[in-house]
Recover the amino acids of this structure.
């Protein structure tokens, strides 16, 4: 998404750097549920994928950073499995609850 689309359609998040300021940002957050097999059956877990424009967050996200989502009140997450999208304009990563 370009900056204008992200402003209108993006999800509100708060991004706190491990050694820096807290930033209110707009990001694309995919709140997908995934079935996971376990010994006694299957469980449904939340698998959240986040895309943030690199121009909004120039430094690569690291696991020591913290993220809160407006749609998931009272929970804090860390970025894991960080990479770039195909165009190279967005950070793409998963969230892990901390």
């Amino acid at each position: 998404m370009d900056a204008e689309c992200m402003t209108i359609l993006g999800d509100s998040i708060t991004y706190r750097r491990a050694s820096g300021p807290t930033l209110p940002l707009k990001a694309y957050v995919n709140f997908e549920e995934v079935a996971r097999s376990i010994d006694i059956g299957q469980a449904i877990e939340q698998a959240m994928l986040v895309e943030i424009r690199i121009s909004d967050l120039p430094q690569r996200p690291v696991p020591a950073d913290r993220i809160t989502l407006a749609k998931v009140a009272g929970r804090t997450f860390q970025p894991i499995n960080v990479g770039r999208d195909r165009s190279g304009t967005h950070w793409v990563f998963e969230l892990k609850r901390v």
